[in-house]
Each structure stands twice: as structure tokens, then as C-alpha cells.
Write a structure and sequence with these properties.
144 residues
Length: 144
């Protein structure tokens, strides 16, 4: 029995739009790290960057681990700062490809805001992984 062409198209669109049914090639997490919370923006493949969400450390690690189910590769980036490299090691242990970038003012002339910073980090990470090495200055991670 042949499927109605419009039904087949609807099923194809549903599969593409349901992240639980189709696995992305890459997921990018831009993390604006602070002592008590983390603002995280996510980008799937070449789609739009989603609004940032706020997590505690345990929630962030759980969220990151869950993303591994939805993509072949998961990348994350946060800026180097006084929190050190513990987050780097924790995310890496989960199987996430993590970068720590040199801190820089992401919104010149404006007050620092967390959610836009997380989105900018996700955007820069995407460009960096796609081959634009000028988008981020990656820092060396010392051994524990």
C-alpha cells in the first residue's frame, strides 16, 4: 500500500524536528561559568542557538551527559577564570570535547551579561570547530 505523499512529507519533517528520534552530528554548548551557576546556550548542528538556560553544577553535568544521547559529538566551551579547570575535567570525563577559551569582552562597550555571553561562546565554538581558528583563543590545560 502506497503512502499519501503529504503523509510521507509530514513524517519526514517530524523526524527532522524531533531531537529524540534523529541524532544530530554535533551539539555545541557555550557555558558562562560562575561560582554558583552556569548559563548554557546550545546549538545543534547548523541550527539556531537556543536561549541560554541556568544550571547548578550537578544539573549542568547531567544536561551535558544527556546531550551525548542526542548527537554523535558534543562540544563545550567556557572562559578561563578563577574557577580553574575542574569543569573541564568533569565534562571531558563524560565524553564531551571541551575547550577553555581565553577570557575576553564579548560585548564591547556594554555591561557584562551572562545569557548573551553563553550564546556568543556557543557561536564561537561552532565556528572554531568548523575550522575558523581565529574565533577563539584556546588555553593550555595544566595536568592536575
Amino acid at each position: 500500500m502506497k503512502k499519501n505523499p503529504s503523509t510521507a512529507l509530514t513524517e519526514e519533517v517530524s523526524l527532522k524536528n524531533d531531537p529524540k528520534r534523529t541524532k544530530a552530528k554535533q551539539i555545541f554548548l557555550g557555558i558562562d561559568a560562575h561560582l554558583k551557576s552556569y548559563e548554557v546556550a546550545i546549538k545543534r548542528d547548523n541550527g539556531a542557538i537556543q536561549p541560554a538556560q541556568r544550571f547548578g553544577l550537578e544539573q549542568l553535568l547531567l544536561f551535558g551527559h544527556k546531550q551525548l544521547q542526542y548527537a554523535e559529538e558534543v562540544y563545550a566551551v567556557y572562559e578561563a577564570g578563577p574557577l580553574g579547570y575542574a569543569l573541564y575535567r568533569q565534562l571531558k570525563q563524560l565524553g564531551i570535547k571541551v575547550y577553555v577559551s581565553a577570557p575576553e569582552c564579548l560585548e564591547e562597550g556594554k555591561r557584562k551579561t551572562n545569557k548573551p555571553d553563553a550564546r556568543k561562546l556557543a557561536s564561537r565554538l561552532y565556528s572554531y570547530v568548523q575550522g575558523d581558528r581565529e574565533m577563539m583563543r584556546v588555553v593550555w590545560i595544566p595536568s592536575p
